[in-house]
């Protein structure tokens, strides 16, 4: 969780003031008694109200509680805010563990896009120990950092277009070249590797 926590704090540090206020409003919405900290009961009630189920358990609360004092301060809630806003909720398809850091994804499934099939993601342990059952070969998998960098290196330069306000922007390409070994294309859709980019686009 440390890697996600550091990412969340880095995002927060660079947010415009309006979004920082939204983060504080989110914190206050959890803090029912106004004591400046979130206990387990407040956490559970708030997540039930928001309809967030996958983080609504004592185990995840303890993951967020970095100092282990039984409550969440603002910096610890920023991690929760980041996970909620970014939609970063990926689980290993081998052991069902929450994917906190580096993970492997099936490139064939990724290339197919969400309209065709779901992504298939694995923690490092399950991928290393072949602890999964999938219809694509193990050599079809790449880790999320390699995938992201490869997309960036090989993406197609897109033409300039005008939006409804007359502002010229780059049109998002429908497909992008990927590593030569795959001879496939990667769909520019809402998938794991694009989550952070989408978050920036939503914030600014």
From TrEMBL:
Pfam family, one: EF-hand_7
Alphabetized GO MF terms: calcium ion binding; zinc ion binding
Keywords: Calcium, Metal-binding, Zinc, Zinc-finger
Organism: Corchorus capsularis (Jute)
Annotated ranges, domain EF-hand: 18-53, 60-87
Protein name (record): Calcium-binding EF-hand
Domain of life, per lineage: Eukaryota
PROSITE patterns given in the database record: EF_HAND_1, EF_HAND_2, S100_CABP
């Amino acid at each position: 969780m440390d890697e996600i926590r550091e990412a969340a704090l880095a995002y927060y540090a660079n947010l415009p003031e309006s979004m920082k206020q939204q983060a504080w409003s989110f914190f206050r919405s959890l803090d029912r008694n106004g004591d400046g900290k979130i206990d387990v009961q407040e956490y559970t009630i708030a997540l039930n109200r928001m309809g967030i189920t996958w983080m609504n358990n004592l185990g995840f609360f303890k993951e967020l509680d970095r100092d282990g004092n039984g409550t969440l301060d603002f910096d610890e809630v920023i991690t929760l805010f980041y996970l909620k806003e970014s939609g970063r909720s990926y689980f290993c398809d081998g052991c069902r563990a929450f994917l906190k850091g580096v993970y492997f994804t099936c490139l064939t499934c990724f290339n197919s896009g969400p309209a065709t099939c779901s992504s298939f993601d694995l923690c490092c342990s399950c991928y290393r120990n072949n602890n999964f059952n999938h219809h694509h070969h193990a050599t079809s998998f790449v880790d999320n950092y390699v995938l992201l960098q490869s997309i960036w290196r090989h993406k197609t330069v897109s033409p300039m277009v005008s939006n409804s306000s007359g502002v010229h922007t780059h049109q998002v390409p429908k497909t992008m070249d990927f590593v030569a070994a795959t001879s496939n294309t990667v769909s520019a859709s809402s998938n794991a590797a694009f989550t952070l980019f989408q978050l920036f686009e939503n914030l600014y």
